[in-house]
Design a protein that fits this description.
The chain has 5 helices and no strands. The protein is mainly α.
C-alpha cells in the first residue's frame, strides 16, 4: 500500500489512457469554468449552482447505471435543488 508499481502503467491499454486523459481535461475545464463564473457572479450563487452536480449524479446514476431511487434520496436531492435555486435567484 502506498507504493506505485511501474508494471501497472504497462497494463493500461489505449482506451483506458484516453479516458484518463479526457478525465483530466474535463477536470481542468470544470475549474476554469468555475473560476470564470466566480468573476461573473457572487460566490454564494456560483457555489449553489456547483452543488447541483449532486442532483445530476443521482439522475444520471439512475438513468444509466441502474442506481435505486428511494423516497429519501429523491427528497434529499429535491431539497438540494430547491436550495440551490432559492440561493441563486433570491440574493
Amino acid at each position: 500500500i502506498g507504493k506505485l508499481n511501474p508494471e501497472f502503467f504497462r497494463t493500461l491499454d489505449t482506451r483506458s489512457l484516453s479516458f484518463i486523459a479526457l478525465s483530466g481535461l474535463a477536470g481542468a475545464l470544470s475549474w476554469l469554468f468555475f473560476f470564470n463564473a466566480l468573476s461573473m457572479a457572487s460566490p454564494v450563487a456560483v457555489n449553489a449552482v456547483d452543488r447541483l452536480s449532486i442532483v445530476f449524479i443521482l439522475v444520471f446514476g439512475a438513468l444509466f447505471l441502474g442506481e435505486s431511487l428511494s423516497l429519501v434520496r429523491i427528497l434529499a436531492v429535491s431539497l438540494i435543488a430547491l436550495g440551490a435555486i432559492l440561493i441563486a435567484v433570491y440574493k
